[in-house]
Amino acid sequence: GTGSVTVIGAISPPSGDFSEPVTAHTKRYVKAFWALDVKRAQARFYPAIHPLQSYAEDAGSFAPWWAGEGNNRWLALRRRFLTLLDDEARLERMARIIGKDALPARQQLTLFCAGLVNDAFLRQSAFSENDRVCAPARQAAMMRLLDRFFDLAEHALAAGVRPADIAQMACVRPLQRLGEDIPDSELARFDALQAAIEREFAALDERSGARDAAHG
């Protein structure tokens, strides 16, 4: 048979400085690194792992396994989520200077979608019966649903829908609570939620088109 051995170590760098010698030297030899983030912990965002400072050098090797678990787009979805988070870090610095409302509509939507990645996917509650453990099939369903929402949101933005209107959609709250509300045993609820999202976006696009026609 085949198997694997995982060795896990912990380092506590002074003042959380990952560039200090012991941490920097250790990172030269490890294939994966989880960076605990003080700001996330202070905001009670758990697990408080910084998604951009953390890494897995062999992430691509997991793609076949995820395909066997029903998520053959795992690498592409992972890349999309990380890109959103990377864009969020860059845009938040700008937003602190000029304000979020002063950003172009596409950048406002990027910040909103990145917030959904954090709230709906990365945040996890150890006190929730549904969220303390996440089966691969449920994680795959969560990623696909968020990906579809992002596609529909970008299409709506291109059609003239304002980011503020997207953020106020009724489906947003259920998306933010995906981990806590839908257990591993009720995956069909993801299909029902996606159908509701599709209907709400269709109605939003229709209202936006009618508003544009009235102002035309």
Compact description:
With 216 residues, the chain is an all-alpha fold. The protein is built from ten helices and two strands, in the order H-E-H-E-H-H-H-H-H-H-H-H.
Structure description:
- The longest helix is centred in the last third of the chain and has 28 residues.
- The mean pLDDT is 93.
- The chain has one domain: Bovine Mitochondrial F1-ATPase, ATP Synthase Beta Chain, Chain D, domain3.
- The protein is mostly helical and 216 residues long.
- It contains 10 helices and 2 strands.
* H/E topology pattern: HEHEHHHHHHHH
Number of distinct beta strands = 2
- CATH topology (level 3) name: Bovine Mitochondrial F1-ATPase, ATP Synthase Beta Chain, Chain D, domain3
What is the overall pLDDT average? 93
Which structural class do the helices and strands define? mainly alpha
Distance between the termini: 69 Å
Strand content: under 5%
Number of domains: 1
Shape: globular
CATH superfamily, called what?
Bovine Mitochondrial F1-atpase, Atp Synthase Beta Chain, Chain D, domain 3
Total of DSSP H or I helical runs spanning 4+ residues: 10
Radius of gyration: 20 Å
Biggest beta sheet summary: 2 strands, antiparallel
Poorly predicted spans: none
Strand order of the largest sheet: 1-2
Helix content: 55-70%
CATH architecture, please?
Answer: Orthogonal Bundle
- What is the highest CATH level, the class? Mainly Alpha
Oligomeric grouping of the chains: single chain
Secondary structure: elements and pairs:
Layout: H1 21-27, E1 32-33, H2 38-42, E2 55-56, H3 63-68, H4 74-98, H5 105-122, H6 136-158, H7 163-167, H8 172-176, H9 178-181, H10 188-215
Antiparallel strand pairs: 1-2
Helix pairs in contact: 4-5, 4-6, 5-6, 6-10
